[in-house]
Amino acid sequence: MKPRILILCTGNSCRSHMAEGILRAAAGDLVEVHSAGSKPAGYVHPKAIAALEEIGLDISAHTSKSMNDFLDRDITTVITVCGNADQACPIYPGQMNRHHWGFDDPAHATGTEAEIMADFRRVRDQIRLVFGAYAAGLRERMAGRI
């Protein structure tokens, strides 16, 4: 069984889904990736879907889930991408690692449609850098080079 990674945010509508899509694309052959929220919004933000579509990733089938949906599953690593989720995060069965990498919430962006979309792209690119590096580190560790 592949190690299971759970990416948490408050609403599970933007950042955690972008991170899930990016990490799944970068290391889905090595790890099982999920995302959830401490207070799920009930939807995935259309601009998060659009921002990932621009880089060739399809998260349109993702759904907003509660972190409590995963309490009965072995979670190897929990990664929180916002401060509220980091504070609300429970300890999961089998959890060995926990990381907190905070990103701005693009759902709170204001301005024109173009300015708001630019904010989603900025956060997407930050997530891509951090989770791309994390995926590279996973590959190195699993190949026994670290």
UniProtKB/TrEMBL annotation:
The record's GO molecular-function terms, alphabetically, read: arsenate reductase (glutaredoxin) activity
Output the InterPro entries linked to this UniProt entry.
Ptyr_pPase, Ptyr_pPase_sf
Q: Which GO terms describe its biological process?
A: response to arsenic-containing substance
Q: Which residues form a coiled coil?
A: none
Keywords attached to this entry: Arsenical resistance, Oxidoreductase
Respond yes or no to whether keyword Cytoplasm is given for this record. Answer: no
EC number(s) per UniProt?
A: 1.20.4.1
User: Which residues are in the Phosphotyrosine protein phosphatase I domain?
Assistant: 3-137
Transmembrane stretches in the record are: none
Asked if Oxidoreductase is a keyword of the record, the answer is: yes
Entries under PANTHER family matching the protein: ARSENATE REDUCTASE
- Supply the name of the protein: Arsenate reductase
